[in-house]
Amino acid sequence: MIRVMLVDDHAVVRQGLRAFLSLHADIDVCAEAGSADQAAVLAREHRPDVALVDMFMPGGSGIDATRMICAESPATRVVILTSSVDEDQVRPALEAGATGYQLKEIGGAELVDTVRRSARGEAVLHPKIAPGLVRALRGEDRAQVSLLSAREREVLLLIAQGLSNQAISDRLGIGEATVKTHVGNVLAKLSLTDRTQAAVWAWRQGLLARE
Q1: In this structure, are 160 and 120 located in the same domain?
Q2: What domain count does the chain have?
Q3: What is the value of pTM for the model shown?
Q4: pLDDT 10s digit of each residue in the chain, 211 long?
Q5: CA 167, 23, 15, 70 torsion-angle sign
Q6: Is residue 34 part of a domain?
């Protein structure tokens, strides 16, 4: 069972999300919050697996809520669920601890997939956001980048886009076991502990995709 907390100042939005997510037997909406402060209290009380957090709320932004939720319940995976594609908000959200950034325009199936993938520990980024976060490798830290092989750099770019191991396997035409090996090498060489850190690292180094 995936326990989900909804954080949005609009009750009608929370009601709609709850009604839809509750249709799925493996998802339980365990709490609803209308503000960052309330989200922090409920995160401490309920310890949800995933928190879907709106970006723009009175009395505290989604970034504030993310930081507070992560402080109270470090295991909770925070996904920003908003109607705005604002690149100036994406980096602060990720740095605050968010592991995903989705738009409210996504369909129901995509929302459920986002919740399930987030609960598994995957980074999830909406396709409209990913191109702004992944560029040709060029950041300041060339020394670390140079530690990666060409294939490992490819894998890092795809991790930063939020692709799962299976999706990377399909994209590159290599076995999933080989992908897991490359992911492990990337994390070890960059001194990172998980895929989310790898995605944030890639973003910070200026890995932005050219369309």
Answers
A1: no
A2: 2
A3: 0.66
A4: 999 999 999 999 999 999 999 999 999 999 999 999 999 999 999 999 999 999 999 888 999 999 999 999 999 999 999 887 776 788 788 888 999 999 988 888 999 999 999 999 888 888 777 665 544 334 444 556 678 888 998 899 898 888 899 999 999 999 999 999 999 999 988 888 888 888 878 777 666 443 3
A5: negative
A6: yes
Domain boundary pick from 109, 128, 147? 128
**Are residues 141 and 159 located together in one domain of the fold?**
yes
Count the residues in the chain. 211
15-18: long-range contacts, CB 8 A cutoff, minimum separation 24? 17/52, 17/111
Answer yes or no: is 211 within a domain: no
| 7 Cβ contact list (under 8 Å, min separation 6) | 32, 33, 34, 36, 39, 51, 52, 53, 54, 57, 62, 65, 69
Structure-block tokens of residue 86: 């604002």
The strand pairing partners of 102, in sequence order, are 81
Please check whether residues 33 and 89 belong to one and the same domain: yes
* Residue 188 burial (CB count, 10 A): 10
Which helix or strand (DSSP H or E) is residue 31 part of?
strand 27-33
- For 157, the enclosing helix (H) or strand (E) is helix 150-160
Q: Whole domain around residue 23: which residue ranges?
A: 2-128
